[in-house]
Amino acid sequence: MSAKHQTHRCEVVIVDDGSDPRQELTVEEVMAGYSDEDIQCKYVWQENRGVAGALNRALEDATGEWIRWLPSDDLFALDSTEILLQVAHDDPHARVLYSGYDEGIPSTRQQIPAITFSTRERQHDLLKKHCFINAASVMWHKDVFEELGGFNEDIVHAQDYEFLLRCSETYHFTGVSDPLMKRRVHEGQMIQTLHDPTEKLKKERDMEFLRERYGAGGHVWVPHQ
To answer: Does domain 12-214 have CATH number 3.90.550.10?
Structure first.
């Protein structure tokens, strides 16, 4: 609902990535929350394609100039789109912006700021060492996807990191230090699936690809029991 209540009214594309309609909300129940006349909203159901596939489907249906991604359990600050668009307006060369964020919900554990590096090369070098950007804090110009393509659907657990690395090869990101989104920390997070040896192996394969393709460092972190 934080997408609906943005101070800058946004187009909203909701992608249901293969949920069981017997267990989840109906389309009518989902859309009832987006019935305001000044909000353009589209609901899409598809066979499960994973996070990257859901994001790519949203990109196919989005018509706006700027794109943001909101995972189902996180929240945007209500003025976050307005603030990011103002920063983009002030810098016509900006194509990838990201903000600081709060971790987490229901209570803040820590605030992660965002910075703008002096050069794209310094930004890229640090990003290869570790993913310091929360992808839900990022706003991309549509030109980025037209130039670089969408999210890699062969990447299961690190599709956001892979795309950020791909972007960083070309674009100098603009950092907005204010925390403009909140990340929910809970037992149902996708990262918790790394306790499963099969999912851990998928993440290991993701990281091996990132090492070979981008020279990325890092390892597979498994959350504590």
So the answer is: yes
